[in-house]
Structure formats: structure tokens, C-alpha cells
Amino acid sequence: MVKLYNVSSSPHVRDKLSTGNVMLDVIIALMPATIMGMIHFGLPALIVVCASVASAVLTEFLFNLITKRKQTVGDFSAVVTGLLLALTLPAELPVYIPILGSAFAIFFVKCVFGGLGKNFMNPALTGRCFLLISFGAAMTRYSVDSVTMATPLANMVSGQEVTWSMLLDMYIGRGSGCIGNSVGALLIGAAYLWMTSGLTMEVPVAVIASFTAFVAIFGEEMTFMTLLAHILGGGIIIGAFFFATDPVTNPTTTKGRIIFGCLVGILSGIFRVYGTAPDSVSYAVVTSNLFVPFIDRYVITKPYGYRKKYMNRIANGGVKVKGDTVPKGTVVLGVITLVAGLALAGSYQLTKNTIELRKAEEAAASYKEVCPQADRFRKDSKLDAKLDAVKDAVYGTDFGKSYIREAWVAVDASGKDCGYVICVASNDAFDGSMAFSVGFGNDGTVSGISFTELHDTAGMGLLCGEPKFKDQFVGVKTDAYVLDKTGELKDANAIDTVTGASISSGAVVNAVNAALDFLSKSKGE
Amino acid sequence: MSRMTFKGGTHPNDQKQFARDNAFVHYLPKGEMVFPINQHIGKSANPIVKKGDAVLAGQVIAEADGFVSSNIISSCSGTVKEVELRQTAAGTMAMSIVIDNDGKYNQVDGIGKETDYSKLSGSEIISKVKAAGIVGLGGAGFPTHVKLSPKNPAGIHHILANGAECEPFITCDDRLMREYSDDIVKGMEILLTLFPTAEGDIVIEKNKPEAIEAMKKACAASPMSDKIKVYPVKTKYPQGGERSIISVVTGNHYKSTQLPADAGCIVDNVSTIRAIYRAVAFNEPLMEKGFTISGDCLKQPTNFFTRIGVSYQELFDECGGCAEGKEAAKLISGGPMMGMAMANLEVPVQKAHNALTVLGVDEVASVPTTACLRCGRCNAACPLGLIPQYMADAAVRKDLARYENDLYGLECIACGSCTYVCPAKRPLVQYFKTAKAEILLERKKQQEAK
Q: Which of A40, A252, A351, B60 has a CA positioned 20 to 30 A from the CA of residue A314?
């Protein structure tokens, strides 16, 4: 009997690239960000990463074992999911949170839908959304070396001016945030993936471009710097390069991917500008994932021979038709971009003054509320000089993390100075930040307090904005207020805490004291 | 600026190093010769010899049946042993004329006599090509005289000599261009006299610098040197595909229902062009051609210049078989990208066959298939702009309407680029071939029902 050789359909050779290699490349690409996270956040970051990866791999292993499926942990895809999830978590988390998150991601999102390639949402991000909903407070309390700090983006939203050094911090990942917050390291990883051709650029470019355009047009008071901060912060970069590009939950055609990328970018923009969710990108990506089957079904590009340009040529005997060399799509896109850019620039110029005017009016209205005796407010060169010296850093040493933001002199109807308005902010609130203005009479007694910002745990910290609490400050002549935690102090300068919100109450007292201190020092000189 | 390459495609290791520097070995077969009566696209030829007949080399043993068909020529002398079903490289059984080779190679009178072809008319040239049984030697086997008779001869503006040879391992066209460059240029001159409005481009991948040099030299010496030029292109698979080569030189793309002539082109393999020259200038029917035996486990990879009809086994034995200590795992007629795997070597070399590739490892069997990651590499690799990822999905789900109408699945040329790049190692081409066969079968059924 003649030996019979294997017969199969062509081709008979295959590229070296395998599913395992693809996943390994993603892991390598995530290494710079992981390492930066560990350097910055230390041991807690390492624990979160290890817990998350181990939980992901173990869940898949056990699922396959129990359901008697082929073991698939060897393709590293569970490692990728665990690592990606870990990079989106704060470092100082109870260890059960990443473990639960990864297990959820692998079991509910991946395994039960049929394993690798069958999940309809990105597992890691869905795991993150699950954790955000389940452990909201812990998931949004970002701390470095056990000190809770607002993220740079949160600081910006609460009014802090964006500086180049802040942007640099965001780029390197020095601020507070999730473990994988080093934009620079993420970009190095993305460049690696791109060069090893594991990543095409349609989706990231579409996400970032559409997000930027959306925020630039619809965001409030956008400047170049705040726009940059929006792009560098809040996970847009990791989302665009590592989550939105997850091939399984991506359309597979270039055209489909551009549509998908724009969807992610615009949804992120909507959630960022109008939403209250701390995390715009996660929700944007998982929502967009749901549209992928529709895109797959209906966005179909024709083969070259059926495209109009080439059909025209063939009809012309295979000779170039005049003007068909310029790709129409490029021209159309170029024109749209140009028109949109011009419109944006134009509307910005037109509305710039109005915005500033309105801002000033709003401010004046709130100042009058705290300084009822005043008619208008003026800047004072002496006060401004003092303000410039202190406004970028935490004020003093005795007032927690209080900031002095603005200082005005109140002028009454007859033109005489009749008091001051000091705008302060504090990062010490129980959950987030607060900002308010304090009005003073000429003698330094508080004439009113008005909150311009109070993000806090609903129901508790928000009570600090109630008159019952605020009005305790009014009309008391003192050098410093004291927080009365027991309710037993009878002095005029004692302030009763809001029940259940002592941290936020303390923050208010500290900030008011900071304003008092600033005012007395300024007047003293 | 001329284009360097086409859209899509992939970069398999070209593996030319095994055989590229081995000059043609001229080999006259000794064993029995087998000539299937259908070695071309179109109707099978009608056998005109019967068992026991004596035949000479160069004798027509089966006549073309109609216009889109081709003569079958005996490449040896001897007696007809059988006219029966024999196994072919494609794995099918085909009616074949089996000749007991007497080893003398006595030829029909008149072969090799030089004629002054410059006096021949266009139709005389085409009838000579038809009589010589010439078909596309690059692999497709489309009858060349049909190709040379387009509806609108004045609309042909490019004659493309296909010397891309993009399949890994195969080097016989490379050798042909190096050793018979003048013949190829003369063949091109004949084609250009048929189509005076056209220019000639000899398209060669850049991994064959010696061939490019040799062809450039031959072009420079030609009286038509102003109309014939060498067109070096980027080394990328499937550059040698008819559509890829037309896309590179002219920028045209066309549908599968259209022909290169619709794009103003005629594409012929360099070995076909040489065969045209030999047929027109020397009355020589198509009897011999270059044939590479290469692979990663052979003792001596060889470029044969041998007779059509010889068995693969005889050539394999002649070149020494596998290297010591190595064993063949897969035998492929053609290259590894589009070639056909064979269960054994007892099959004849046909007109359009150009190589035997012997692989020491069967990669298809040895790498496991995993689930589709939807990474889209297949889409990027398709030289036709198809969407293999969606096509595979539709084919597996048997959604043949979507496969055919929405995804243009019948356009697929089975070049294998998508399958080569797939990290999940899915047999995409196999899905597509199956889907295509099912659709065509269904069509046939419906037509018969009418």
C-alpha cells in the first residue's frame, strides 16, 4: 500500500502569529503602564494587579474544568482581561474588589457567552462598570500613599486652573488616579502594538478626534489647556487605545471601525460634559459595543471591482477617467473638518465676550448674596498681589487643603468700601471637593456664605450648604471658628457640625478660617 | 510615478533560496506519460488516438472541442497504452491518454524549423498558438488563443508579461527569465505586433534581481525596446495574480464577470510568452516547460526543464527525494499558498503545473484552530477588497444569500492571503471554496429545473 499524505485546502503555510502571540503582545504593550503604576502607587498597585490577573485566570480555568471544556487559559486572553481591569482601578482598594471584578468579567461576560471571541462587550470594562455600580465610593476614592486626593481632572472641573505642570503630571501619571494613569506609558505601549501590527489606528484616532471635537464644541468654557486636560485625563487614552480597540467587540472593517470609534468618542463626550458618572469612557465603550453587530451587519464595503471609481474606469476601457485619482472621501472629510473648524473658531470668538460677561454677572450675583451691603465689587491691587502669592497652592498650614481662589473689595452705593468677598475652595470634603464665597464686613465679621460647588455624598455633606449650618458663621466677630463636634461648646465662634458629615463640616470651617486669616494678613500690611 | 504594489496582500517567507540558484536540469522522462484530456479552462479535448496507436512527440492526441478548448499534444514518442480514468494532482479522476514512452522522442516532421514570423498575419499567429495547444502556464490554464482574441483588439493598451512568481518556493519562472530572456522578449514582440496599440511590461518581483537584470538587457537589445520595459514590483503575495498585476500597472480593478481585456490588458505568464515564441517561430507545440521541485526537506531542490505528462514521482526520484533523516509531511502541486495537496505522487505533470513543493512539516495539521478574534487582519490582507471575516461568518452559518449578494463572496480568488495571516488559524479559504461550490451547485439545479 502506497503511503498517503495529508490532504487539506490551501494555503498550506501559516503566519507565525497566533492567538497566544497576539495576547502576549497586548500584555507586553501594557507593561510600561503597569510598571509606572507600581512605581507611583507602590505595593497596593502590585496587589491589585496580581489579584485581578489571578482571579481572571482562575475563573476561566475553573469554568473550563467544571463545564468540561477545552482548557483555554493558555491563550493568555484571561491575563489580558485581568491586567486591563486592574489598570483601571484605584490602587488602594480592598483586595476582594479586583478579585470580584475579574471573576465577573470572565464568568458573566466571557465564559457564559461562549468564551474567547464570543463576548459582546469588553469583559474588563464591563467588570469595571460592575464594580463602579457596586462599590461606587471605593472605586472613586483615589489615593496616593494613603492620602486621598482628587484626580487632576476632578480638580479642573472644580475650578482649578490647568497648568503645564499639571498636564505633565497627567502625562507621566504622577497625580492621583487609577493604576494605569500614565498616559505616556500607555502611548509607548500603543506604539509597540502598532509597530508589531497588532493595532490599527482607525479606532483610537476616531475616538480621540470625535471626543475632542465634541468636548470642544459642547464643553463649557473650553480653552486649549482644559481641552488637553480632558484628553489626558479620565481614561480617554487607555480607552481609545486598549479598550475601544478590543477586536472581539469591534467591527472588523475599516469603515465600521471608524463609525464605532466616533460613537465611542461622542458618547464619552456626552457622558463627560452632561453626565454625572465619574467614568465616561467605560460606559461609552460598553454601550458602543452593543452597536457592533448592527455595524457588522450593515456597514459593508464593496470589493474594489464594484466601486464606482473602478467601474467608471473599466467602462472607459481601462483608461483613467479624468479626476478620478482624488479619493472623494478624503475631499469630503477635509471640507467637513475645515468647515467645522472654522465654525468652531467663529462661534468661540463671537461668544467669548458674552461668556466672560455672563460669568462676571453670575459671580457678582453670588457675591451680593454674601455681602448684601455692597453695590458692586472691585479688584484691589494690594489684595491681588497677596492673592497671586498664595492662590496656586494649599493655603497656610492650619487649614487642611484649603485654597484661596479670588479676593474682591465690596463697594457700596455711595462709592465707599464696605467689605470683602473671598472665594475659597477645599479638597477636604468627605467625597470630592467644594468651593464657596465668603462675604465680610469692613470689621471682618462674616456677612454670608454661598456655595458655588458642593460635590458630596448625597444627603450628608450637601447639608453643609443649608442655611442652618451656614448661618452660624454670620455676624460673629472672631479670628477663627471652632468646629464643635460634641454640641457642648457655647462660645459664639463655635460651629455645630452637620450630623453625619463632620469631615465636610470641618472642611468648611477650615476654609472660612483660611479666608479670615488671608484677610487679616492682607489688611495688616 | 508608477505604482509599486497593490492593496492588501501579505508577506509569506518567499523560500526561494532553496532552488533559485540551481540552473535548469533538462530531463527527458523515461517512464509512462499521462495526458488528461482537460488540462485547461473550457471544454475537454476529444481524444483522436486509441489504444495501440503509435504516436510521435508533438503529435496532437486530443483535439480542441470548440473555441474555448485546447489541443492535447503528446510530448514523447511511443504507443498508446490506455485511454482511461487516471488520478490527477487535484485529487480527481480524469479521462487521460496513457502513452508507453519509448524513450526515443521521435518528433513530428517540421518541428524546430525556423520560420519568418514577421510575415504572418494576426489570425495566422493565433491559429499557430491554438494548434500548439498553448494555455496559460502560470496555473490557470486559460486557452491562450482565446485570450489573444479579445472583442476589441484596439482597446488593448497593456500586454503584461507575468514574471512575478509570488508563490513561495517556486523558481522556474525566475530561471526561465534568466536563461531564456531573449525568447521571452521575442514572444513579447510577437504579441505587440498583434496589438500595435499596446505597450509591453514585464512585471517581476524585486526578490529576483538577476531576472530583472537579464530581462532589462534583453529588452534593450530588442528592436521594440521603446515599447517593452521591465516593471519591477514590491515582493508581496499575491502579486502574480492577474488582478493584482493589472492593479499595479494600470490602477484598474474589475469584477469576476469581467476579463483583463475589459481593463485594456492581456496578461500572460512569461513561460506562456516563451511558448508562443517557440510555436510561432519554430512550429514547436507545447511539450516542455520549467518545473520546480523545492521544499524544506529535500536532498537537492531542482529546477527541471522537462516534458509535460511525466509523473511527479519520476521527477521526485530523479532529484534525489528527501534529504537524509528528513521526511516529507505534505506534497503540494504548486506552491504552498494556492497549490493542491496530493495524497501521493503517482499523478502526471500537466500544462499548467509548475512545481512540486515538499514540506517537512504540515503546518495546517500541527497548529490548532482557535476562535475568531475578529481582529480584521484577513480583511486587510484581501487583495480584492472583500471582507473575509464576514464571509467566513456567513459561510459557516450557511447564510449563502448574504455570502453571495451582500458580501460578493463569489469574487474570491482563493489566494489564501486571509488564511495565511489569521492568528486563529481558521481555514477560511476552505469555507469559501465550500460556499462557492454550494452556490454554484444550487444555481445549476435551478437552471436544470427550468
A: A252
- Among residues B70, B28, B382, which one has the least CA distance to residue B238? B382
Residue B416 has its nearest CB partner, among A11, A18, A302, at: A11
A318 in reach of chain B (CB within 8 A) = yes
* Top-ranked range on mean pLDDT: pick from A424-428, B278-282, B323-327: B278-282
Task: Measure CB to CB from residue B341 to each of A12, A17, A300 and give the nearest one.
Answer: A12
- Interchain pair B152, A317: CB under 8 A: yes
ipTM score assigned to the predicted complex = 0.88
Alpha-carbon span B299 to B318, nearest angstrom? 11
Segments of B354-412 assigned E as strands:
355-359
pLDDT (0 to 100) of residue A359: 67
The mean of the pLDDT values for chain A is: 84
Closest chain B C-alpha to A200 CA, distance in angstroms: 9
Closest CB to A296: pick one of B12, B384, B390: B390
Residue B41 corresponds to which cell in the numbers above?
Answer: 479552462
Q: How distant, in Å, are the alpha carbons of A72, A104, B197 from that of A79? A: 11, 14, 63
| CB contact residues (below 8 A), chain B span 358-417, against chain A | 359, 362-365, 367, 370-376, 379-380, 384-387, 389-390, 406-408, 411, 414, 416
* CA atoms of B254 and B211, how far apart (whole Å): 29
Q: Which residues contact A227 (CB under 8 A, 6 or more apart)?
A: A212, A215, A216, A219
Render pLDDT for B287-307 as a digit per residue (tens, 0 to 9): 999 999 999 999 999 999 999
How far is it, in rounded angstroms, from Cα B1 to Cα A505?
Answer: 74
Per-residue pLDDT tens digits for A151-169: 777 777 766 777 888 888 8
pLDDT for the residue A447: 86
Please indicate whether residue A380 or residue A55 has the higher confidence score (pLDDT). Answer: A55
Tell me if chain B has a CB within 8 Å of the CB of A70. Answer: no
Q: What's the gap in Å between the CA of A267 and the closest CA on chain B?
A: 23
Q: Which of A2, A73, A230, A6 is nearest to B364 (CA)?
A: A6
H-run or E-run covering A191: helix A183-195
B198 shares contact with chain A (CB less than 8 Å): no
pLDDT: which is higher, A233 or B132: B132
Of A392, A473, A487, residue with least CA distance to A437? A473
Top residue of A17, A22, A304 to mutate, by most chain B CBs within 10 Å, is A304
pTM value is 0.79
What confidence category does residue A455 fall into, taking pLDDT thresholds of 50, 70 and 90? low
Whether chain B has a CB inside 8 Å of the CB on A64: the answer is no
Give the dihedral of Cα atoms B204, B209, B210, B216; nearest 10 deg: 60
Per the structure block, which three cell numbers stand in for A494? Answer: 463655635
